């Protein structure tokens, strides 16, 4: 049985789980170098190998993909909070019409159509720039 297992090509890489196991010639199992356990590795999965090392030998091998995933999670910037000014274009243009502003507010942050009718403060703010505000949510929906 011992002759059925060989060193894996990543055996010398101490960051690899394979430095702790010998691989079967058929590639479907692995033998622990620290104890007599033989574990399945069907489809090339090493989850069982990691679990064995962790539970039986108290060894944690951090794979390169795991450390990259963790690194990406830690460095991702938090989502930016929008200010009301962000919905308006910075320069005067045709893009700054009421329909475009409402469309951006609905699409980017999920404002319901009805909020533009029911919120007195939002209506006052929009009235400072636009004279003809919609009077129903259906009107807004049809315009967009």
From TrEMBL:
Keyword Cell membrane in record: no
* Annotated InterPro entries: Znf_BED, Znf_C2H2_sf
Q: Name one GO molecular function term.
A: zinc ion binding
Q: Which residues form the BED-type domain?
A: 12-64
Q: What keywords appear on the UniProt entry?
A: Metal-binding, Zinc, Zinc-finger
> Entry's PROSITE patterns?
ZF_BED (PS50808)
What name has this protein been given in UniProt? BED-type domain-containing protein
Q: What is the lineage of its organism?
A: Eukaryota, Metazoa, Ecdysozoa, Arthropoda, Hexapoda
């Amino acid at each position: 049985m011992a002759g059925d297992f060989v060193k894996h090509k990543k055996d010398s890489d101490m960051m690899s789980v394979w430095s702790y196991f010998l691989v079967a010639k058929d590639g479907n199992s692995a033998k622990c170098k620290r104890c007599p356990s033989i574990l399945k590795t069907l489809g090339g999965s090493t989850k069982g190998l990691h679990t064995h090392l962790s539970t039986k030998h108290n060894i944690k091998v951090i794979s390169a993909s795991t450390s990259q995933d963790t690194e990406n999670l830690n460095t991702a910037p938090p989502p930016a909070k929008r200010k009301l000014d962000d919905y308006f274009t910075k320069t005067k243009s045709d893009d700054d019409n009421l329909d475009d502003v409402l469309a951006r507010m609905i699409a980017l942050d999920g404002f319901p159509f009805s909020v533009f009718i029911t919120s007195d403060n939002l209506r006052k703010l929009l009235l400072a720039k636009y004279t003809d505000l919609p009077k129903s949510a259906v009107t807004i929906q049809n315009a967009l």
